[in-house]
Design a protein that fits this description.
By secondary structure, the chain is α+β, with helices and mostly antiparallel strands. The chain has a single domain (3-187), classed as Aminopeptidase (3-Layer(aba) Sandwich), CATH 3.40.630.30. 30% of the residues lie in helices and 33% in strands.
Length: 188
């Protein structure tokens, strides 16, 4: 694929289905060894569409990577959501995903570089992001982009339904998914 056909723009409400599709397909590939197959196989693009639509309506900035006007990736960015980070100094890349068919082509670097430049343009001097501790592919990617571990870790537990997984009603009572995350940061 020629990078000359690739553009980056900000999402509007009508982009939510495309973002959700990339989100689900990417999760189903990258998290296969980290999250149960039952949950990954039942992720709902429709539920994720509504979640992304809600975020766009709230004003969350989502940069879209497109190839010939087709969404192939996205990055969500803004001020740090961490209480211990001054929101006027720390920006955050809260998500960055590419369709798996476009991995390892330099497009993730292009999208991440855009996000870093945009956060710097908005006045942030540092940026953080959270990644699953066992996600070696993502960790190598972020390290190649100049991010370093900052020592912060957390375990979030999210109910499968909030992930957009449609699971048999009996199973949803206690289907909580733990996410052991580590934080990376860098100056911009």
């Amino acid at each position: 694929m020629q990078k000359s056909n690739v553009t980056i723009r900000y999402a509007v409400e009508n982009d939510a289905p495309g973002i959700a599709s990339i989100h689900v397909k990417s999760w189903q590939k990258i998290y296969r060894d980290h999250i149960s197959d039952d949950i990954l196989n039942n992720l709902s693009i429709e539920m994720r569409t509504q979640a992304w639509r809600d975020l766009i309506v709230k004003g969350i900035k989502i940069a879209l990577l497109e190839n010939e006007k087709q969404i192939i990736g996205f990055a969500s960015l803004g001020p740090s959501r961490d209480a211990d980070k001054p929101a006027d100094q720390y920006g955050e890349i809260s998500s960055i995903y590419l369709h798996p068919d476009f991995w390892h082509q330099g497009l993730g670097k292009l999208l991440c570089s855009f996000a870093l430049d945009e956060l710097k343009r908005r006045g942030y001097s540092k940026v953080i992001l959270w990644v699953l501790k066992n996600n070696k592919q993502a960790r190598q990617f972020y390290e190649s982009m100049g991010f370093i571990l900052n020592g912060n870790e957390k375990i979030d537990t999210i109910h499968a339904c909030k992930l957009g997984a449609i699971i048999d009603e009996v199973a949803t009572e206690n289907v909580n998914v733990p996410f052991h995350e580590i934080c990376y940061s860098r100056a911009i």
